[in-house]
What does this fold into?
Amino acid sequence: MKALLVIDVQNGIVNHNDFREELDRIETIITDFKRDSSQIICMRHLVDDDRSPLYKESEGSELLPFIQEAADHIVIKKTPSSFFKTGLEELLIQFQVKHLFIVGFNTEFCCMFTAIAAYDRGFDVTFVEDATGTVNDGNTYEMSGLDIRDFVGTVLHWSDAIEVLDFEEYVEKYRN
It folds into this structure.
């Protein structure tokens, strides 16, 4: 069985940049998984620091409405890994998930950490590269011109452990 993991599609992130293309792709993939009656699990990152846009009691920490509506399960996390002290693994085992598809935010943190953690736990992982986004850019890392999403996708692809697709490849391979 397969499941879709939608990571941190929260106001405090998506209001930071123009993520319309990423959100459209995520919404399309959610529709595909709903049509197949596959599990859709949404992660919500909460932070205790009230200066953070993801502060646990702020509007910034809320999932976007279409994500809340689509979610079969919402799992709270406090670290970049969706697996660390969350119960996600047990949920996936309960639903006999073998193949996990990953979309969401932030590419180089929560999405990448989660993809690696899923692989380490024995799941087949598909990372839909251009259905992820980040609030950061090359300047954040003092690497002007760095395409973070492409860099992370390339590293994961080269690992030969995680399937990395762009949205068009996802459509060709998995869409019914």
The chain has one domain: 2-174. The beta strands are 2-7, 39-45, 73-77, 99-105, 124-133, 163-165. Residues 2-174 form a domain with the Rossmann fold fold (CATH 3.40.50.850). The longest strand covers residues 124-133.
